[in-house]
Every structure is written in structure tokens, then in C-alpha cells.
Amino acid sequence: MCWPRYIDPELKKLFHAIPKRKTNRNSFAHSPVPAELQKQMGEAAAAEGVTLTCIDAEDQRKAIAGLVSEADHKQFADPQFRRELASWIHSSRRNDGLPVYAYGISSILNNATPLVNAVVRTFDIGNNIAASHLQLAEGSPLLACISTAPDNAQTWLAVGQALERVLLVVAEAGFDASYLNQPIEVPALRSRLHLLAGGEPSPQILLRIGKAATTLASPRRPLGDVLW
């Protein structure tokens, strides 16, 4: 039996952007993100029923970068957070998780992944991480916050669908994106992010958008392992 389904013709245009999309954690060039692309990003989010706010004003970006740095300090001070993060860092021979090269660590150190895990798990490296992320956030030409009014399972699903659309729109335009979700993951900072970014009361995803040097894709599980 075939169930009736709605097919959005706009999604077909983004199909070829799928292999282009990668999370790029490198520093972005200072060239601005075109207003037309910002408009398309907002429309992509709205198509899934959520709000996307673009922030390109320097003072706002710096204030939000400060929140990212503050969140890094709080998260890395928590041993449980460090253990979970370390559990996701793998060598490039694994087909999931985060390879060491995704953090800008030379692939030469691929065999030293257990050492990297041990450092992340054992030591509070929040000062170094916070300084690095502060620089990345301040140097990004555009920040984009996806937000919702209610904060429940239904809107979380819509946010995931909106994020998929937005990232493909960005990739199709030849730009890169990466995440700065730390202020959203620290409850005490989430409301402060809303005040700075605007949009709806519940920030869900914080992205930085720009152009950077080409990066390798993170490994993925075989299609047969995740789809049946």
C-alpha cells in the first residue's frame, strides 16, 4: 500500500548540494555574506515553520562570541561533558564520530587519537578552546540563529528539517557553515542569546556562515547501516 505524501518541489533544487555540504571549522574570510543568500536562508527556515535570524552587525557578533566563550569555560569545567566529548573523537578509520582532523589537528596524529581523547577527558582545556572559538565567532562575517516559540518535540523536529534546508542552501551558494551551539547548551546563557540574537524566545541552533579553506568530510556510516 502506498501512503499519500506531500513532496515539496523546492527540495529537488537542493539535491545536488548534498555532497557539497560539510561542517567547516576553519576560520572564515571576512567577505560579507550576500543579502540575497541571507534572505534565502530565512525562507528555507520559514518553509519548515521556524525562524532564522541573521546577525552581521559587528557589535552583536562580538557580544554573541563572548557568550560562546563563556559557555566553553562552563562546559569544559564539567568532567561529564569532557568524557562525552572524548567518546566521540575517533581516528579516521572509524565511520562515525569526529575524526581528529575535524578539529584542525594534523592527520599525521591520526594514530595518536587515544592521546587526544585522554587530554580532552582528563584536563580542563576550556581556556584554550574558549579563546579559539571566540576568535572564530568574532571573525565570522555572519551568525545565524534558528529559534522557535514553543520548545517541544514537535518544534525540535521542525528545527532539524529547517537546519537541513538552510545548510543545503548555504552549500549550494558556495558558502560554508559550522556550529556555535555552546550558549544554547548552557541553560543560564540561552535566554541571553535570545536577547542578543532576536527571533523567537527559544534559540535552538547557532551557526556561523562564511567562506573558508576546503575541509575534509567527516566519515559516515554506510547507507545500508542506517536506512532500510
Structure description:
With 228 residues, the protein is α+β, with helices and mostly antiparallel strands. The protein has a domain at 29-57 and 141-212: NADH Oxidase (3-Layer(aba) Sandwich), CATH 3.40.109.10. It has helices at residues 9-12, 35-46, 58-76, 79-88, 113-122, 126-138, 153-172, 182-185, 187-197, 223-226, and strands at residues 51-55, 89-90, 98-99, 142-148, 176-179, 202-210. The chain has a four-stranded antiparallel sheet with strand order 1-4-6-5, with helices on both faces. A two-stranded parallel sheet has the order 2-3.
Indicate the radius of gyration in whole angstroms. 18 Å
Low-confidence stretches: 106-112
Estimate the strand proportion.
5-15%
Any idea of the CATH class of the domain at 29-57 and 141-212? Alpha Beta
CATH architecture of the domain at 29-57 and 141-212: 3-Layer(aba) Sandwich
Helix count equals 10
Mean pLDDT reading: 85
Separation of the first and last Cα atoms: 17 Å
Order of strands in the sheet with the most strands?
A: 1-4-6-5
Structural class: alpha+beta
**DSSP, total strands:** 6
CATH superfamily of the domain at 29-57 and 141-212: NADH Oxidase
The biggest beta sheet, please?
4 strands, antiparallel
Following the backbone from N to C, one meets helices and strands in this order, namely: HHEHHEEHHEHEHHEH
Q: Per CATH, what is the topology of the domain at 29-57 and 141-212?
A: NADH Oxidase
- Helix % is 40-55%
Shape: globular
